[in-house]
């Protein structure tokens, strides 16, 4: 195996760290110095070598520890993984999609051997070597969706498509930005997005739904979303708000660089071939402010975005109370120079901080 | 997320195929079976899906949608069944007369606008004529999963009843065939009555049959979302006309035997599409100016949209008059 996996935690002592490699490939979400909603979809057909966009399902240094954290969440709260009865075939679709993608994209880490419906799956980082019968749930230790998503970074919403709408009828959700699968299960696209400010009035959801209903087999799509999280906690769920909500009050000028994290979701969309369902993987990437500002362009831009974000969006994203503290910190890394367009770090071409 | 988002090509990805078998079923219908040139498996598909077959008909590109009728779990080949339409624009005639075993074609990734509702406790299929094709893949999947289904199949005559012998031979208790030349009628009201709660009904056939099923089901108190229909309209030939594409800045002449969408594509303009049969809504186009009559043939636009003269579905609809300007 070529990749080194970190041993780290996303709770208690929060030993999570990004290596220099992980910082440079972080999916920075702002392509210009301001932010507003848009239906910012593009095709998910690869990306620059080494970037998080290159593979269908990105595997990075946090893989093994993230899967351990997921197991801890599920042990405390099994309802984080649910699948309504008609979604089992979609679960098999998802298992097939991930096993085929990972074994092709990371042949040194994952192997899939298929002989008809007799499949053997080898996951070297997690030490798994299982043989099972495809489409026969009795041959796996969990349902197909739970089995494969216990081995894949990111949350998964599996959406049934009917009546010109999408329905949240299955999912594995343990690394979420404050939403609950147990609350949303069975809801349609407009119902589960009801809490989002502004976007309904802007017609964003109608256009987004129209786009998603037409995501076709062989043409996956992707977009980014973002929020802020104090401490590198993956499980910022409503169910556990009493554990993490209070942590937002622990920021000080001394610890903010290490504790405040930008939380970015790489959201992808795949049509599932056998069930005609849509899977919506939501992959969470965390980065500490003190690591972002090692990239001069990102330090300048993040300050400007946080400073100029409308109040209701800052409130919805949960950091309005800490915004002054964040701006005091980030302003040290903004010298007023212009930034290059696009999301990439541009370390060779952008000037170092001029103060 | 990148500075310059990639633009998706209209219609999504395509798959190169070789014709592996051509099987005439009767005077009108022929089955075409495709495999991949390298022998690789096809992508799996969901029953009810269609594929768009791209043909080069003597220099004239044609893209026609056909339901995938093979067993979805068999990824070694795709199969379609094509009814020859002698009155039509020639796509089906081209397949029947000009395509041979070993020829290369291109087909789209499967697109499903007529999926099974997997919540259903039971599936009732109503087929009219060549409308049998999507149900063949649905039946194959439900047989594998142990799902409950029954099929009612209306045909003109025994000699034209594609797959009727095969279906009744394998599923004698679930398949019911009605021949109109024997004055047999599909007993719709009876079979809508007394179905168990949670039954869904699916109809594929001519427009009149679909309307009849929808109206009768509604009259019998069936919920609208338990009644599913698929009608692909084949684009009909018509009088030629001219169109100006404002965004592209070009004029296009639409020939009698090509659709407006095909003419736009022939001019090198990449226009969106999925079904090419007036059903999916993807090719909806704004009309900037129309001095004449829009001949709407789709079932996507609402009646008031059609009356407004502001929208057209170029895959099946045409124009008669002096001047047509589209936002494309």
UniProtKB/TrEMBL annotation, chain A:
Xref: InterPro entries = HODM_asu-like (IPR021848)
List the protein's name: DUF3445 domain-containing protein
Q: What does the record give as the organism's lineage?
A: Bacteria, Pseudomonadati, Pseudomonadota, Alphaproteobacteria, Rhodobacterales
UniProtKB/TrEMBL annotation, chain B:
- TM annotation in the entry: none
Per its UniProt record, the required cofactor names are: FMN
- InterPro entries the UniProt entry points to: 2Fe-2S_ferredoxin-like_sf, 2Fe-2S_ferredoxin-type, 2Fe2S_fd_BS, Beta-grasp_dom_sf, DmmA-like_N, FAD-bd_FR_type, FNR_nucleotide-bd, MRET
Keywords, comma-separated and alphabetical: 2Fe-2S, Flavoprotein, FMN, Iron, Iron-sulfur, Metal-binding, Oxidoreductase
FAD-binding FR-type domain mapped to chain residues: 12-117
* Domain (2Fe-2S ferredoxin-type) ranges: 241-328
Which Gene Ontology terms cover its molecular function? Answer: 2 iron, 2 sulfur cluster binding; metal ion binding; oxidoreductase activity
One Pfam family per UniProt:
Fer2
Top-level taxonomic group:
Bacteria
**UniProt cross-references to PANTHER family, sorted A to Z:** CARNITINE MONOOXYGENASE REDUCTASE SUBUNIT, NADH OXIDOREDUCTASE HCR
Q: What is this protein called?
A: Ferredoxin-NADP reductase
Q: Which organism is it from?
A: Roseivivax sediminis
List the top taxonomic levels of the source.
Bacteria, Pseudomonadati, Pseudomonadota, Alphaproteobacteria, Rhodobacterales
């Amino acid at each position: 195996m070529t990749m080194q996996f970190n041993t780290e935690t996303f709770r208690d002592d929060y030993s999570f760290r990004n290596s220099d490699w992980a910082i440079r490939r972080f999916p920075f979400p702002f392509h210009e110095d301001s932010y507003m909603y848009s239906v910012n979809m593009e095709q998910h057909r690869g990306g620059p070598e080494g970037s998080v966009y290159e593979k269908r399902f990105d595997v990075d240094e946090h893989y093994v520890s993230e899967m351990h954290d997921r197991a801890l969440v599920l042990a405390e709260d099994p309802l984080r993984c649910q699948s309504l009865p008609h979604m089992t075939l979609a679960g098999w679709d998802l298992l097939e999609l991930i096993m085929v993608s990972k074994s092709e994209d990371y042949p040194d880490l994952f192997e899939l051997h298929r002989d008809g419906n007799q499949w053997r799956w080898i996951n070297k980082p997690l030490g798994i070597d299982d043989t099972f019968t495809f489409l026969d749930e009795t041959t796996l230790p969990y349902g197909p969706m739970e089995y494969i998503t216990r081995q894949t970074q990111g949350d998964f919403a599996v959406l049934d498509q009917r009546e010109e709408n999408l329905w949240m009828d299955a999912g594995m959700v343990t690394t979420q930005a404050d939403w609950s699968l147990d609350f949303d299960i069975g809801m349609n696209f407009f119902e589960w997005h009801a809490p989002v400010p502004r976007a309904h009035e802007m017609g964003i959801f109608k256009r987004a739904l129209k786009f998603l209903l037409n995501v076709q087999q062989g043409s996956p799509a992707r977009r980014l979303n973002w929020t802020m999280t104090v401490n590198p906690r993956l499980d910022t769920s409503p169910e556990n708000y009493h554990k993490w909500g209070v942590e937002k009050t622990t920021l000080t000028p001394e610890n903010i660089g290490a504790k405040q994290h930008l939380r970015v979701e790489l959201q992808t969309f795949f049509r599932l071939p056998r069930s005609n369902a849509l899977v919506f993987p939501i992959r969470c990437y965390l980065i500490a402010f003190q690591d972002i500002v090692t990239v001069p362009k990102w330090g300048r831009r993040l300050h400007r975005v946080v400073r100029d974000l409308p109040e209701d969006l800052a409130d919805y994203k949960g950091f309005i109370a800490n915004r002054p503290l964040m701006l005091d910190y980030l302003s040290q890394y903004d010298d007023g120079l212009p930034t290059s367009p696009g999301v990439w770090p541009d370390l060779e071409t952008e000037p170092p901080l001029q103060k | 997320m990148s500075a310059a988002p990639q633009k998706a090509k209209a219609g999504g990805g395509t798959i190169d195929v070789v014709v592996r078998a051509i099987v005439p079923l009767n005077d009108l219908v022929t089955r075409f079976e495709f495999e991949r040139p390298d022998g690789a498996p096809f992508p799996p598909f969901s029953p009810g899906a269609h594929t768009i077959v791209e043909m080069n008909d003597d220099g004239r590109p044609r893209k026609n949608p056909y339901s995938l009728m093979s067993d979805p779990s068999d990824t070694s080949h795709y199969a379609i069944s094509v009814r020859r339409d002698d009155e039509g624009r020639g796509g089906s005639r081209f397949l029947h007369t000009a395509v041979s075993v070993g020829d290369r074609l291109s087909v789209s990734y499967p697109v499903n606008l007529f999926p099974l509702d997997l919540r259903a406790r039971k599936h009732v299929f109503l087929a009219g004529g060549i409308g049998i094709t999507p149900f063949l893949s649905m039946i194959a999947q439900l047989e594998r999963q142990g799902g409950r289904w029954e099929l009612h199949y209306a045909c003109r005559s025994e000699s034209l009843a594609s797959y009727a012998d095969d279906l009744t031979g394998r599923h004698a208790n679930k398949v019911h065939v009605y021949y109109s030349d024997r004055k047999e009628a599909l007993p719709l009201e009876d079979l809508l009555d007394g179905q168990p709660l949670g039954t869904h009904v699916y109809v594929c056939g001519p427009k009149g049959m679909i309307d009849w099923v929808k109206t009768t089901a509604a009259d019998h108190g069936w919920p609208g979302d338990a009644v599913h229909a698929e009608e692909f309209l084949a684009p009909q030939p018509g009088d030629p006309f001219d169109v100006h594409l404002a965004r592209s800045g070009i004029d296009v002449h639409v020939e009698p035997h090509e659709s407006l969408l095909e003419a736009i594509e022939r001019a090198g303009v990449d226009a969106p599409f999925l079904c090419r049969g007036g059903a999916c809504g993807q090719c909806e186009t704004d009309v900037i100016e129309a001095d004449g009559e829009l001949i709407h043939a789709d079932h996507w636009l609402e009646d008031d949209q059609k009356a407004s003269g502001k929208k057209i579905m170029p895959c099946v609809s045409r124009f008669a008059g002096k001047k047509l300007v589209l936002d494309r």
